[in-house]
């Protein structure tokens, strides 16, 4: 028996923000046993399917077409299209986009340039572009979010670099699955904080939840950003390079903050790493993951779930959605409105007016 067995069906996709290969088949103990013995596949209860990390080894094992790594693609771009790539990157820099956007857009645009080989990207017609995106759907089997990312990058080149606004007139965007933000209930948040004994880690989790911070904002907090008298914290250059001010939880100021500052004496950043620089995002994510495990919570959720939980719990206590929008640093209230759907989970607590007759 091997993975050429036609009962196995393999499909590249995305799960929890990572590239995976979905492995689908009718329930069969022999197929499950073989899969477990030869891979590190895991079961997703929400998707009702097995999945494995998408990498070169498993693609070869399953007989799937290999995906060329981003850096490798950059090295294989034909000389004719290298000037286009340079203009593309320079325009992103001049627009003041983040390093992450520069990196992501570059890799997405490079995939198109790699496919074109010596054909000049500036000479592509709308029909040929449409054909390329069909190739991304049918052959590469990219997920909806991957297609959106690729369209955004290529659209940027034609509209912001070449100033051709009609190139994407007949190229529809795929509908994204309407997924709800993953969140924790109040008891789960409390339990994670309680089992986290390290004072620094405990304070990190409290602030991430208590102020609805992104992990990048959490590790970027500086001592100078905190006004303990006014009970306010300045979140500097959040997503979209926007500053905002959020209230500092009173319990944190009166208890944890004073104790933490006395014991750790941070100099610039509130949370410092081993060499006095800011704490790493990866380490902060690991702090949350460790707390989740110690608390015995089985949900597949990352530290960003604390921010989602903050927003949802504010809505549930009657906070105006416009205030929540500002606290989260959202540009549009439409982004914040997704939390109104999450609070549907609490509708079971609502009593029918019939019961009060």
Put simply, the count of helices is: 16
Low-confidence stretches: none
Distance between the termini: 66 Å
Largest β sheet strand count, sense and barrel closure? 4 strands, antiparallel
Structural class: alpha+beta
Q: What proportion of the residues is helical, as a percent range? A: 40-55%
Give the overall average pLDDT.
Answer: 85
CATH first level of the largest domain: Mainly Alpha
CATH topology-level name of the largest domain? hpI Integrase, Chain A
Kindly provide the radius of gyration, computed on alpha-carbon positions and rounded to a whole number of angstroms.
24 Å
CATH architecture of the largest domain: Orthogonal Bundle
Considering the chains and any ligands shown, give keywords for the structure.
357 residues, alpha+beta, DNA polymerase, domain 1, hpI Integrase, Chain A, 3 domains, 4-stranded antiparallel sheet, 3-stranded antiparallel sheet
């Amino acid at each position: 028996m091997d993975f050429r067995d036609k009962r196995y069906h393999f499909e590249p996709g995305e799960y929890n923000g990572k590239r995976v290969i979905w492995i689908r088949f009718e329930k069969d103990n022999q197929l499950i046993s073989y899969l477990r013995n030869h891979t590190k596949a895991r079961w997703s209860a929400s998707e009702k399917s097995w999945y494995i990390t998408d990498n070169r080894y498993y693609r070869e094992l399953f007989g799937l077409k290999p995906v060329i790594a981003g850096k490798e693609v950059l090295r294989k771009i034909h000389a004719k299209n290298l000037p286009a790539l340079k203009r593309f990157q320079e325009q992103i820099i001049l627009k003041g986009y983040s390093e992450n956007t520069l990196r992501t857009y570059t890799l997405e645009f490079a995939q198109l340039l790699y496919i074109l080989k010596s054909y000049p990207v500036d000479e592509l017609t709308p029909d040929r572009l449409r054909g390329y995106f069909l190739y991304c759907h049918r052959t590469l089997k990219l997920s909806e979010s991957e297609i959106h990312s690729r369209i955004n990058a290529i659209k940027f080149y034609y509209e912001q670099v070449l100033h051709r606004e009609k190139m994407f007139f007949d190229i529809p965007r795929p509908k994204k699955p309407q997924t709800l933000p993953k969140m924790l209930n109040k008891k789960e948040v409390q339990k994670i904080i309680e089992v986290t004994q390290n004072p620094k880690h405990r304070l990190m989790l409290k602030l991430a939840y208590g102020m609805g911070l992104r992990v990048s904002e959490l590790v970027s907090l500086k001592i100078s950003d905190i006004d303990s008298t006014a009970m306010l914290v300045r979140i500097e250059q959040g997503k979209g390079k926007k500053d905002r001010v959020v209230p500092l939880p009173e319990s944190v100021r009166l208890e944890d903050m004073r104790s933490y500052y006395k014991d750790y004496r941070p100099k610039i950043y509130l949370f410092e790493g081993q060499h006095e620089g800011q704490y790493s995002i990866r380490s902060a994510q690991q702090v949350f993951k460790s707390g989740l495990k110690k608390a015995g919570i089985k949900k597949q959720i990352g530290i960003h779930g604390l921010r989602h939980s903050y927003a949802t719990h504010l809505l549930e206590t009657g906070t105006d959605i416009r205030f929540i929008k500002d606290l989260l640093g959202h540009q549009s209230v439409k982004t914040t409105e997704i939390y109104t759907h999450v609070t549907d989970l609490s509708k079971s607590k609502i009593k029918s007016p019939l019961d009060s007759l």
